[in-house]
Design brief:
Distance between the termini: 39 Å
Strand content: over 45%
Helix content: under 10%
Order of helices and strands: EEEEEEEEEEE
């Protein structure tokens, strides 16, 4: 069974940091572009960041540029999202997804989705 699994979410104060991980089960993550998306209550799922299969190219939503960094370690079959200077508006369920292309403006490019990990930024 092909799965991606997110981990690393939690409760953090404004200005704090978290690192999310996306691991693959049943397939080699290194063959795929990986995207991170998030969905807050009552809002549509939005793209946060993505990285190509080789790791040579990344994209970020304007709202997270300069604060979030995506990276991958294909030897560990894992992709990371380092989130710094977190704001209350970053509160959401964060999903990773595997697909053919690194894009953040649509979910349609991604074939395999995880169940999500909750990130809450609050004092």
């Amino acid at each position: 069974q092909l799965q991606v699994v997110e981990s690393g979410g939690g409760l953090v104060q404004p200005g704090g940091s978290l690192r999310l991980s996306c691991a693959a089960s049943g397939f080699t993550l290194g063959y795929y572009a990986i995207g991170w998306f998030r969905q807050a209550p009552g809002k549509e799922r939005e793209g946060v960041s993505c990285i190509t299969s080789s790791g040579s190219s990344t994209n970020y939503a304007d709202s997270v540029k300069g604060r979030f960094t995506i990276s991958r370690d294909n030897a560990k079959n894992t992709v990371y999202l380092q989130m710094n200077s977190l704001k209350p508006e970053d509160t959401a369920v964060y999903y990773c997804a595997a697909g053919a292309f690194c894009v953040v403006h649509t979910t349609r490019a991604y074939d395999y989705w995880g169940q999500g990990t909750q990130v809450t930024v609050s004092s």
